[in-house]
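User: Hello, can you help with two protein structures?

Assistant: Certainly.
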Amino acid sequence: MSITPFKLERYYSLYEFKARVMLSSSDCESLSMAELLALASPSSMELWNNLKLGYTETQGHPILRQEVSRSYAGILPEHLLIAAPEELIYIAMQSMLEPGDHVIALSPAYQSLYEVARSIGCSVSFWPLRIEGSRWVIDPDDLERLVTPHTRLLVLNFPNNPTGFVPSKTEFDAIVQFARRHGLMVFSDEMYRLLEYHPEDRLSAICDVYEKGISLSGLSKTMALPGLRIGWLASQDTGLMERWLAFKDYTTICNSAPSEVLGIIAVQTRDRLVERNLSIILDNLKIAAGFFDRLSSRFNWLPPSAGSIAFPAWLGQYPVEELCRRLVEDHSVMLVPGSMFDHTGGHFRIGLGRRNFPQGMAALEMVLAE
């Protein structure tokens, strides 16, 4: 199998563990082990203290699947597969697609959401997010122009990475109706779900509202625990599980035992973790709004509706890649240009979830002053 290099991850490999401030991180401020264990219930703490470091169940720890299932309306523990989020994207695409299939994917988006399909031999059409005024928008009617007799899968990502966009519930319902009308599978990356700034904007998980929907979620973004490498696939389609498990036998076979128990603690205290992370994001969002308002002649600020990222545009005369290069080389602050998402127009991703966000924005202002 031949696959295109993952541009964003290759870019991160250059700077992620060298830069003083990660101004483009998509996750929230990570919890320490002590912080997470302090939240554990007595029964979860007993699981942790008596943990044996042997093999684990391929589908995922039964208690973890039970706890995760509580966050959905119609998903049972047996409808869930636990694994690393990136692994789950690979498993889902490999189990659903064949060479010659056609995929429609929202754009911009995380590269693996469409690149894995391409590596299988599928053709991919992009459903673009567009800018109207100072906000991102979609047009569900575009989907009818993109669908073909060979379309097998629609790939969604709401809240969107990198823009922070969330469609209206009316738009979301139109998307589900489109998929049902054409008999399409829907793969929905929901890694930022629960980080909506206004709870009324939260969409239903696709696995709860569509019989052919697959939801991807996990601990990396919403719960600030990317180091655990724990995520899950959820679907009403029970026929998918055996295919998923067959692929997992050739990837990791099973998950890390410590990560699963720590994951149980995280999911059991989800509301507290979400509240913590939203507090950081909203404080940083105020700083970002003030910064871009002061510098409106040099940037187009496109406020996100949810999540820990935004995707503003640089209006300066030199390329945004040069802005990012100077920021990381002169000030050790990493910013990701939009080209890492195959997106033009001078966009760049900023991360709103880290506590050192103010220092990163101060460094960006210094580069502009220079």
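That covers the first. Now for the second protein you mentioned:
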Amino acid sequence: MKLYFADTIFSPIFRRYFFYFDSYPLVIQIAIILTTIAITATIIAYGSILYRRYSGWKRDRRLAKLNPRIDDLITDTVILNEELALGTPPEKIELDLSGFARLKYRDMFVRQALIDRIMHYRKNFVGDLGYLLRQLYIDLDLEKDSVKKLKSPQWNKKVQGLVELTALDMQISDVNILPLTNSKNRELRAEARHAYIKLSKNEPFKFFDIATEPLLMWDQIELFKIITTNKDIVLPNFARWVTYSNNKSIVSFCLKLIIHYNQTEAIPAVIKLLDNRDHYLRADAIQCLGKLKVEEAEDKLVSIYNNQPLNCQIEILKALGRIGSGRHLEFLKSEFIRSQDFDIRKNAARSIIKHGALSQNMLGDLMSVSSEENQLILKHCMNPLIKY
């Protein structure tokens, strides 16, 4: 039996280097072909690695010569600008670009190096110097390079463009950035959302309306940091997304923002969320009500307690402790005594203790009648050094 594929593709090659290749058994022919493919693939892989390393070495070597020249020009043009030192408003200063012309800044490699160095300095300077660095970026037409990256079909180029435009506080039209906030690529999606919140002046949370991809935990942490540190951000009523959004991660994130900004006007929407089918969202809603100390929600929380999974029950116990009205101390005592679950007893005990003076007599009674294990739980929860 002949290996026809080998005959048509590989036989001419092997006849030249291997005599009587056609006379070899089929197994030997296959082994020779696979060995040749493996060797060729290995050579290509090593060649690619060597080429990348050589390219990186050349790039680093070129940057080692170029960056000091760029730094000197930025220092002379912006940081040590004489007009700025004399008190001239930065918006009236015309920057001298003659030194940059000698850099041959029309070369794409040089332009990228300029962008990177301007971004580096922009991270360290604010106020008038920050304004002049941004103006230098604009005067050198570097903005066009970043916008061009934003339109690239490659996701990593898009991310690079977003990072550059965001770092220099350049405006990006909604048409260009909004579709990226819902990209299938996680890194591009996250960077676009960060950029949109940071750069949008009117509706920084508009992408919440169209988001179908989830907000992962790390994305939520990064977004929370950007939102809470941006003093000029326009805050909406986050109850809007708690009520209408079908994206569970958006709802969960909005609940965290409601807590942080103490949006008491969102309380009715949060209470309605207690009827949601998703028990993770219910747990987040219960946590939100507890941290906002919503007394009117206590009766509802106690009434639904027995029908909830463990995570929601624990959040209800915590919420009753955070609210601390004292109206449901007997309920907490009952759960502490009768429950066989350690987490239930621990959180019930902690919530009783958080009532302070209202629960002093109850704590004394519990210590006298509880089992040895429950006494240990109470003593553990009384330790002020232990945080929950």
